Amino acid sequence: MKIAKSVNRLGTEAVYSIFAKTKKLEKQGKKIIDLSLGQSDFKSPKHVVDATIKALKDGHHGYTLPNGIIECREAVSRKIKSLYNANIDPERIIIMPGGKPTMHYAISFFGEPDAEIIYPDPGFPIYESMINYTGAKAVPFNMLESKDFSINPDKILPLINEKTRLIILNNPNNPTGGFTEKTIIDKLARGLAKFPHVAILTDEVYSRLIFDKKEIPTLLNYPELYDRLIVLDGWSKTYAMTGWRLGWGVWPESLIEHVFKFCVNNHSCVNTAAQYGAITALDGPEDHLNDMMKEFTIRRKLIVDGLRSLKGVECSLPGGSFFVFPNVKGTGMDGEEFTERCLQKAGVAMIPGTAFGKFATNHVRFSFATSRENISKAIEKIDKILK
């Protein structure tokens, strides 16, 4: 069989290959501490689960509109208003089966041969994968230029030219945990005003997982960008609902018809009962999120202090998400060597920095969305093999 060349341009996520390795080692009787997964160890809130079960019992098990039930879109609109004081018409909101469809559709709309798309490196690997798939030129901006991994407008704006169709932003950043302050986003927005032909995809899926009582400088607070702004968010990280496959996108009015058609051709609609649970998550109490962030704050300090105690390892304090992205060059290994050695010799799983881009050769990503006990044991085991 001869398949389309574009299929061979698709990449993947290294987390799945690491996951396969850990399972193989576990079958051999080895105990692995997995700090690779971007998934909270907290359970989905009980009131959300109960609301979803009730929806099923009430008969909400059929097809819905491809863009999501109006009640769910209205709930997203209310949440955006309460969090950011931004008025977003529910008709501009599309409920998606997770966050990736918003990436897929947005990049597909603007990516084609002879076009250019700018994206963060290190960054979520599906950005580059989808850009390559469309045939567009993937143009990375280096997230390592700043010691705290924040977005740097001075590195992004000079990359824009007449071929640039889309810029992808991610704040807080996966894999680095870097958080970009409002003053920097203000500067970037002013710079983007000079390039009205460029669309913007901002991935804000970690927008509620921010430390030190700081708030996300969401691009939803820049109405002058609305005619070319796509905002990606969802329930997965905030409400510990990764497996529910629930996300939303805020789109420019001019693209709604196209998104609608992509939904029809791709996934038809999002799970109906899950959408009712999603409404309850947005409108309900946030004790679960508050408790989760208190625990993540403790874990963040535990893992950063632990990594900094290791010989040859440097680690910045992440401003958001549940990831740390230490530099391991001082150990005499690059990120891939460090990852493999830690997995095979210490029984600790992580992701090499090269899984997130070419600029992260000497880094690795740890997730601290696991127990304090696991974090402490992992640090202890790594310390032993380094000594």
Layout of strands and helices, then pairs:
Elements (H helix, E strand, L loop, with lengths): L4 H4 L5 H14 L5 E2 L11 H12 L12 H15 L8 E4 L3 H11 L5 E6 L3 H10 L2 E6 L10 H4 L7 E7 L11 H11 L6 E5 L25 E6 L12 E4 L5 H11 L5 H12 L3 H22 L14 E2 L10 H12 L1 E2 L1 E2 L11 E4 L4 H15 L1
Parallel strand pairs: 1-10, 3-4, 3-5, 5-6, 6-7
Antiparallel strand pairs: 2-8, 7-8, 9-12, 11-12
Helix pairs in contact: 3-10, 4-10, 5-6, 11-13, 12-13
Report on the architecture of this protein.
There is one protein chain. Helix 5 runs parallel beside helix 6 (125-134) and helix 12 (335-346) crosses helix 13 (372-386). The strands form three sheets. The chain has a seven-stranded mixed sheet with strand order 2-8-7-6-5-3-4, with helices on both faces. The chain starts with a helix and ends with a helix. The chain is of the alpha/beta class. It has two domains: 5-43 and 287-386, Aspartate Aminotransferase, domain 1, CATH 3.90.1150; 61-283, Type I PLP-dependent aspartate aminotransferase-like (Major domain) (Aspartate Aminotransferase, domain 2), CATH 3.40.640. It contains 13 helices and twelve strands. 47% of the residues are buried. The radius of gyration is 21 Å and the shape is globular.
